[in-house]
Design goal:
With 226 residues, the chain is mostly helical. It is built from four helices and two strands, in the order αααβαβ. The radius of gyration is 62 Å and the shape is elongated.
Length: 226
């Protein structure tokens, strides 16, 4: 058992020494004791290793190049998106600026109009007339005359309208107080017991029942206008 273990250790030691020697040979060291065939074999190994390393390097460079191209394309797309967003935002800013200028112009015009109206109202009230010319004063006076004429006209129209309505109400009230039988004389008779008053005394004397509720008339009371 110990002999086998010793042989295994020796074998491993020998393999380790061979690996170290191969590494040294691949690194270009300890070449003096090699034969021509060993040098040729070593040269072939170097050539094969170089080709493998060259292909691996080339593959890795292509992979990294493809990855960089993908990243570059993504960066280009992101840059294009940002540019589009920038253009759109600039367009919105220009639109908002134009709207702001329009609002400012409209506000300024409104303020000027309000100021002109305040001055006009003040002058119509008789204030701030010191700097006016004779023509402007005459125009103000004519405006007052026209305003008074229009106010008087409207007041007259309202009074006429109210008078017409009062006349209609009077006529309706008179019609309501006329006898429902002859429609010519005013109602001046109250019937009992129903207390209806819808006839004149002449027509009331001719009936025995109330024309409104058809109840029998037991008594008649004559009324008189003051």
């Amino acid at each position: 058992m110990e002999k086998r273990s010793l042989e295994g250790v020796c074998t491993l030691t020998k393999e380790l020494e061979e690996l170290k020697l191969n590494i040294a040979h691949m690194e270009g060291q300890e070449l003096d004791n090699l034969s021509l065939n060993d040098l040729v074999d070593l040269e072939n190994k170097h050539t094969q290793a170089y080709q493998l390393i060259f292909h691996a390097r080339t593959k890795r460079q292509m992979e990294e190049s493809d990855s960089k191209n993908v990243q570059l394309q993504q960066l280009k797309l992101e840059n294009q998106r940002l540019e589009n967003g920038k253009v759109e935002m600039e367009s919105q800013i220009r639109m908002l600026t134009n709207n702001l200028h329009k609002c400012e112009d409209a506000l300024s015009a409104q303020q000027n109009e309000n100021e002109a109206l305040r001055v006009k109202a003040s002058r119509l009230e008789g204030s701030h007339t010191e700097g006016l010319t004779l023509t402007q004063l005459v125009e103000l006076e004519n405006m007052h005359h026209e305003g008074l004429r229009r106010v008087s006209q409207l007041r007259q129209e309202h009074l006429q309208k109210e008078l017409a309505e009062l006349r209609k109400e009077k006529d309706a009230l008179q019609e309501k107080q006329m006898c429902i039988i002859c429609t010519e004389k005013p109602c001046n008779c109250v019937l009992l017991p129903c207390r209806h008053s819808s006839m004149c005394s002449a027509c009331c004397a001719l009936l025995t029942r109330c024309p409104i509720c058809r109840s029998e008339i037991s008594r008649r009371i004559h009324t008189y206008e003051k």
